[in-house]
Backbone:
């Protein structure tokens, strides 16, 4: 019997009514003859509420205890969904991450799945039960619960699909799929019916909130077909798949979509002495403090000194500034920065063999009078860091410039 | 180093502020040089909130899923308390029931501790860490979390104290200890400084809310000295201990206290045919439905028929009535009952060798014009079921009648 893994996020599980709606959806899939494994997140704002409690009792909660605390959110969700299914006459069993055989390694708060031991899941599927697995968590070698970090339930679902050799992994969320741009900003944006894993991963990393990029990459690695769909309707959604059809799509369509991110700050070290090891001296303190750096630009050195700029999330701005100041001082330089920035990216595998997309992008932004602070490119995307206040305008301009609104769906 | 087990209930952990206050208390005990194991309950109304959620998603939630759900309440508490201790510079580790080696057998929702494997606790104590254990839960043979039923954290704490051969088990609650009667009803009631386990167990079963009776019995079985104290002050509390001093106390003091319970309903089967197996036919359906029956009275049979009366909690009244009706009809009888009853009990080991206490109790209630519906006696207590509206008056009368207010403390 075909195995399908479904994932329901926090917004799909926000209240008891939502849980019952998810149960109806799972029941329908179960009755259609599928073997179902369902990965769920904590209900709505549960994780935020638990983090607020932790902040109330401790200035610097230990990562292990944070993980013990947060794991309970998903454990509540799985039990409630199992109950709602029982109420509808569907045999179902809830499993915590450890019970489901999810083994995790790495650091508390940002664990990595090392292995899934699926014996218990297979046994329950053989009994025609729906298996409900707590997302975002597993057991480490000490026997403790450890979490995968935020967005981790996507990863749980895709890893389950890979291990169980599932037909597909269905990611249910609060939007209809992946769009050419955020429809709240660009009314003419349209759903992308089929997208390649590499484009999807780039779009996720660059700001599309629909799916966690780590999960997309894991899916690509293990050839898992992923369907992104709304948990509130029966619209077709977006399929993430690497195949022949897609190859054709990729050559005909050059730009897949425009994504943006409003959570960007920039820190620049100016006039620092450069030499071997300079970059390491700048970025090691940030890494040790757990600050993720996104775009990095180093200017060409003049007379032995240069500028190094990088972006971080707004929440890390003050800390990054402080760390960068110390390094800059020791290297004879200074620090400046901007807190309220955003970035806008043009993503598409079709860009791979067609140079000039960066230039086109700069042209479009320049015509609109939008200043570009930093640029970052890879094979299939171009990203510009711009003032936060210009981001919406930039997305609309680029969507039109690359003729995405005229594309036939 | 002396090991002490402390238990903090839901009211002691109600908010983040409460958790911090508990952390201060634990810190002080830790600094005094004790090896500390702390068992905690879920925060305040968490368990009720989770049960309400379960009722929203399912008409009849499965006991296994209820246990998976409820266990998360205590898991949150232990993580938060660990964080609050870290914040105060105290090394501490939180453990779920399964992580602490609590093995449980029996039925979901009413599990029984079968074994504690204390290796991990001992290892942490050797490192001079405070070990915080989730109360009310453990792991069954399937690897699932199972709960001990309500009030189970008392049992967790006493079982830990017995296994670890602790010096004592301290039960922190929202009252100063065990009183000769409820001080809200009898202003002259006073704290009992020392009480025997058998008296304490009877008082708990008969309505004293201060400690779970199963935990008291477990403590008696394994000779665990239990201190009941307030988590809000440093008052001395009540010591539950079996020893020479207490023997003397028992012979000099006859009545330890008056306890009451307002959650009582009565169902009576009248005029039913009696014979071998009648009682089993009446009570087996109740047991199968999970209804706990407290007092049972069977009248002497007249001409082959008799009356059987029993009490249940108010929440079970309607169901018990329905089940009793079916049995009564099949035995040629009828059913009647009263929903709003209470019971009042006089408890004391001193009563053991002194007959006449029941008569004295009836005398006191009779003088006050309080009707007695049912009577139940054991070696160390007499209980009368009376109308709920008369319970407070009865407690005051009996406290005075047995001269408890004049006792020297």
Residues:
């Amino acid at each position: 019997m075909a195995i399908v893994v479904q994932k329901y996020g926090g917004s799909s599980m926000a209240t008891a009514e939502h849980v019952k709606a998810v149960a109806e959806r799972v029941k329908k899939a179960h009755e259609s003859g599928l073997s179902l494994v369902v990965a769920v997140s904590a209900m709505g704002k549960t994780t935020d509420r638990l983090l607020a409690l932790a902040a109330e009792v401790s200035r610097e909660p230990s990562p292990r205890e944070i993980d013990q605390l947060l794991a309970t959110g998903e454990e509540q969700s799985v039990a409630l969904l199992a109950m709602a299914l029982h109420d509808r006459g569907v045999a179902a069993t809830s499993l915590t991450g450890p019970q489901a055989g999810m083994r995790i390694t790495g650091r508390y708060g940002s664990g990595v799945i090392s292995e899934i031991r699926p014996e218990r899941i297979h046994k329950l599927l053989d009994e025609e039960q729906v298996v409900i697995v707590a997302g975002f968590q597993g057991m480490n070698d000490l026997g403790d619960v450890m979490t995968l970090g935020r967005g981790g339930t996507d990863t749980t679902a895709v890893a389950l699909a890979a291990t169980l050799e599932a037909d597909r992994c269905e990611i249910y969320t609060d939007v209809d799929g992946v769009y050419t741009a955020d429809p709240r900003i660009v009314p003419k944006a349209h759903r992308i019916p089929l997208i390649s894993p590499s484009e999807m991963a780039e779009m996720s990393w660059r700001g599309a909130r629909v799916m966690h990029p780590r999960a997309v990459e894991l899916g690509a690695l293990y050839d898992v077909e992923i369907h992104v769909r709304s948990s509130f309707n029966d619209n077709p959604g977006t399929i993430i798949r690497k195949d022949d059809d897609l190859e054709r799509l990729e050559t005909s369509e050059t730009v897949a979509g425009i994504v943006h991110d409003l959570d960007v700050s920039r820190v620049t070290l100016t006039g620092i002495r450069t030499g071997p090891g300079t970059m390491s001296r700048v970025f090691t303190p940030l890494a040790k403090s757990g600050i993720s750096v996104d775009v990095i630009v180093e200017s060409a050195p003049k007379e032995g000194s240069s500028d190094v700029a990088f972006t971080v999330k707004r929440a890390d701005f003050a800390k990054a500034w402080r760390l960068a100041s110390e390094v800059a001082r020791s290297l004879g330089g200074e620090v400046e920065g901007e807190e309220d920035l955003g970035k806008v990216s043009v993503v598409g595998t079709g860009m791979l063999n067609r140079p000039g997309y960066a230039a086109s992008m700069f042209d479009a932004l320049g015509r609109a009078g939008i200043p570009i602070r930093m640029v970052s490119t890879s094979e299939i995307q171009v990203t510009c860091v711009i003032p936060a206040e210009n981001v919406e305008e930039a997305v609309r301009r680029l969507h039109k410039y690359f003729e995405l609104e005229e594309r036939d769906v």
User: Anything to note?
Assistant: The interface with chain B takes residues 16, 19-20, 23, 50, 53-54, 56-62, 64-66, 68-69, 71-73, 75-76, 78-84, 86-87, 93-94, 96, 99, 143-145 of chain A (CB under 8 Å). Residues 248-252 of chain A have pLDDT under 50 and may be disordered.
